[in-house]
User: Fold Transcription initiation factor IIB from Nitrosotalea devaniterrae.
Amino acid sequence: MSIQNNITEQNSNICVSCMGKLIVDLEKNENICSNCGIVTSHDSYHNSSYDVDHSGNNEPTSSMMYDISLSTVIDKKNVDASGKQIYGSFEMEKLRRLNKFTISNDSKIRNLNKAMADIRRITGILGFGNLIAERASYIYRKALNKDLIRGRSITGISVAAIYIACKDVGVSFPIDKVGDYVENISKKTTVHYYKFLLRQMKMSVSIPEPSQNISKIAARAKLGGKTQRKALDILSKVGDDPILIGKKPISLAAAALYMAALETKEYTTQLRLAVAAELTTITIRKRYLEIAQILKERSLPVPPEIEPKDEYLEETIPLQDSPDCSKPHELIQVEL
Assistant:
């Protein structure tokens, strides 16, 4: 026994890569090889004989699984926890069938199975990460535990949960085009279930700031950084005014960019910004006038609008960012 301990102690001082001598750093609990310089944990050498995991289940828990990855699975190996063979295959097969029937016969588990599959599918289509999927799964579980799903569409509640998760994280959700990605689910249905979950579960979501849309719109409209900084400055001056309460944040961002472009003398039009923000020129015009009115009331300078020189304004707008256009570039003629 003493010989085996001596061999183990000697091996703990030898690098496994180059067989060089290890230097122990007790302060950081690390082993450093004096030959090749590899750094390993000091505990890994002393506990190497105890690293074998006999549980057979190393998967991390996840709320995206219907059982949070804590299910009881009877595999076909017919061995117990210590690895010994279990005799009596008929009884084990009977236990497997009973376990499978118990799982499939539970309506709550079937509901969660379909909902988690929908959440994974929809978040994958929209390009969202695991953070939003996990958050949406958690929201759906809470709704199911409060018996809010009965008699309602599982897919509709799943989309609404994803919408709430996006609001919590601060990620934009394409609510206007949700019908293009999910069958039989429209914007009206999503908003209905969204408000229903917020009301019944007494949840509150943060309102997105208009400044979050500045960079996206500016990139699509080909505006520079100076205009973006000026637009952020304009929003900081008028953002707390009650006139702008309830207005679309993206419309305020587009109007601020238009005003900033006038001040920085960077040529752009309301049409270009409307295409970039997927809005109408009337909306941008209204938000622009409201922001200009607030600035005048606060005795702040308002840049004058540039009058068009020609009767027709011809402008080439990059429409590849707009989902409604198939051609990469198209010449648009607008009558003023």
